[in-house]
Amino acid sequence: MSLAEALEQRIAAEGPISLHDYMAASNAEYYASRDPLGKAGDFTTAPEISQMFGELVGASLADVFARAGRPDHAAYAELGPGRGTLASDVLRLMGGIGFEGDVHFVETSPVLRNAQRERHPDATWHKTTDSLPDVPLLIVANEFFDALPVRQWVGDAERKVAFEGGGFRFSPNGTVTRETCPAAEAIAGRLGGHLARHGGVMLVIDYGYAGGEQGDTLQAVRRHTKVGPLAFPGTSDLTTHVDFAALAAAAKRGGAKVTRVITQGTWLETLGLGPRAVALAGRNPDRADDIAAQRKRLASEEGMGTLFKVMAVHHPDWPAPAGLGA
Ligand code: SAH
Known about the structure:
This protein is α/β, with parallel strands linked by helices. Helices cover 38% and strands 22% of the residues. The chain has helices spanning 3-14, 19-32, 46-49, 51-67, 85-95, 110-119, 182-198, 244-253, 264-270, 273-283, 288-299; strands at 17-18, 75-79, 103-106, 124-126, 137-142, 151-154, 157-158, 160-164, 167-171, 178-180, 200-209, 219-222, 225-227, 237-239, 242-243, 257-258, 262-263, 308-314. Strands 2, 3, 4, 5, 11, 15, 16, 17 and 18 form a nine-stranded mixed β-sheet that branches. A three-stranded antiparallel β-sheet has the order 1-8-9. Helix 6 (110-119) links the parallel strand 3 and strand 4 (124-126). Helix 4 (51-67) packs across helix 5 (85-95) and helix 7 (182-198) packs across helix 8 (244-253). It binds S-adenosyl-L-homocysteine. S-adenosyl-L-homocysteine (SAH) binds next to helix 2 and helix 3.
């Protein structure tokens, strides 16, 4: 039975289900059944665009690790590591300054775990952040929080999904006045507590906003094209814009410090995307045009530069990562 049929039966038996439960079921099935990344898939992420992205993330973490005094037992942890591409680029950079810590991946998808295992055979996998080890952690979450299920309200009524006239429909139908992501806040709170107790830092990179209520930000993508969020349960990628202010508040309640939120474009250029692109093109003259195009896609306003934001959460005594401090 397809997920659409299973949801139709569930709604027939129980009545409309919350958008939260619909999104959770759709994304669980979606990520469990495919590798969605890249041209042949449904969407492309920054580390899949260029190695320069992961190298700058790695340079940022290497710098924090060194300035924190190279604590013993510090480990690298990634939330939703996709194909493991980002971890490869980050760990290559960090290896260059002598970081040899363990690697921990929080990943639910068996398909993506297999892809990650090919590149990182010695990693340890976790279903949730709860089992991460009690050591200083250097955590990266790129396009992770946006995949977690949200709740929405139309006035005082929680937005649900009904099955009517042969298709899924929102109920009630009306303007969404509030959207929250309970799982994202819970994870940010728990990791804020972990970092405050054991040391470390987390870089959160995602498309989202840093203040103000946004209402409905739910969207679905399939084969690089936007589709209706209720049109393809389990075979389209459902995401929302991340509420960075809500993540920051949760992490602070856990005892951690949080930095300001800046755009991905400003952050990458501050970390040296320009010189890195020039150096990389110098070593690969036949790829110079591609590398310039990758830089533009990562950092320009027409690309991912403005929509995507970056924020760090860190132990109160650890330094803020470069470019994010006060
Ligand atoms: N960070 C990668 C992949 C982003 S796609 C990149 O930038 O290329 C989202 C990732 O989060 C996938 O690896 C997906 O399987 C994982 N994921 C989605 N929901 C999850 C959940 N609830 N728990 C753990 N991992 C999840």
